[in-house]
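HUMAN: Ready with one sample?

ASSISTANT:
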Amino acid sequence: MIRERDYIVLQKLGISENKLYMQLENFRKGFDAAKIVKPALVDDGIILLSDSKLKDYVELWNLNKEKYVIVKFVPASGAASRMFKELFEFREAYSPDKYADLMLRKDFGSIHYFFKHLDEFPFWNELRDKYAETNGVAIEEDLLRKNFVQILNFILDEKGLNFGFLPKGLIHFHRYASEVRKAFDEHFVEAAQYADSGNKAFLHFTVSPEHQNLFEQRVNLVKEHFQQTFGLHYMVGFSNQEHSTDTVAATPDNQIFRDEKGDMLFRPGGHGALIQNLNNIDADIIFIKNIDNVAPDHLKAKTIDYKKALAGLLIYFKEKIHYYIAQLEEVETLEDEMMEEIGLFLVQNLCILPSMQFKPQNRLERIRYLYNKLNRPIRVCGMVKNEGEPGGGPFWTENADGSVSLQIVESAQIDLKNQEVKEIFAASTHFNPVDIVCYVKDFEGIKFDLTQYVDPATGFIAEKSYAGRKLKAMELPGLWNGAMADWITIFMEVPIDSFTPVKTVQDLLRPQHKA
């Protein structure tokens, strides 16, 4: 199966022959469905803070954050092309005789609505000015003439704003009285308000290699402005998804898929590959939030409070866990009552239930179990009430060793053909908005190797195509599910209005994005 020139490709990518065969084996046997036991609910896996507790954890964060190196980690490699999918489709389908049919819909999200409200988008001023300068005609005139395809060409293509080929992070998101901010810019503003320490704010963006230069140019434009605004010094880093995390494509019968030249075809391994990027960051506490989930300034207050509360809760649990680890270290003097207390803490507070088959044979074996369960990376994950949004959700899940713990589970990971599983999934009340705060060092301050806490059995296989030929593509365990499967996981409810993603360009017209 492996040809001589394949070894050169594998060496260049940093992928071992053994890893290649493991990927092919995964195609053949597939991935087992996640064993969800029950949904995580408020007071049964999800913490709901009272107003007073919210203030307490915000204050705990404010009092302690200077002790830590903090990084805001933002996955930002997503292309904006998906935001403009409907515009691309309209342009492809348009012809004068089809105009009436294409404009039949007039509701929010329709092409008619897009053009009618074009001057309300945050990019309007730049579009208007550049359009007139480039085309020698005002865009308002072409709107009246219904020259919609020409306008879309200018919005989407390189001769104009080039939005169809930019990363989502560099699209205008909010228009203020004195400035227009891109999604990328808003993370500078957020970092200054909850992720600063020692008059510094560290931001790290994962970007695609072809866009990194554009992001670096944007840093040069906005960094000084935000430093003066907030009195902080920003440290900004970038990384790309490593090619060693790529996965080989397979034919429908699970053989190596080869392109027209006979070379193996590799594909990016999905956002789960970013666990390596996260692992390379030297920090104590890391905030994780997607590039498109940002609100304008007048709606940021609640987001900031809950971000601080998530981090305060993380500090609280981290201190408790490290105290118990210190007790377990003193094997000779450790009292049975303390072991009992730690065991109850695992079950009642950390929602970690041992396997029914686990029967420690002696005192040392029980201590070792408690120690291993506590000495792991910690994450506190915000969870939002589900109001119809797609995405993973919080569940109590049975692990390979028979233990039960809290996990974020995507619908693609479960067997919805199983009626019992389907009912459990339907009973879920919350979803994952990717609002996570992590502590990635052990009780001695030594950084965990995060790659050791991944569940490799939680990948995903999808059908794709290449040059008209069907293929199987494999994604690695997702960053916030399989890649963090063996972390200590704590869920906390956060308000729905702290979740303001932009999936389509029309979302920028929603009230939560009007600056």
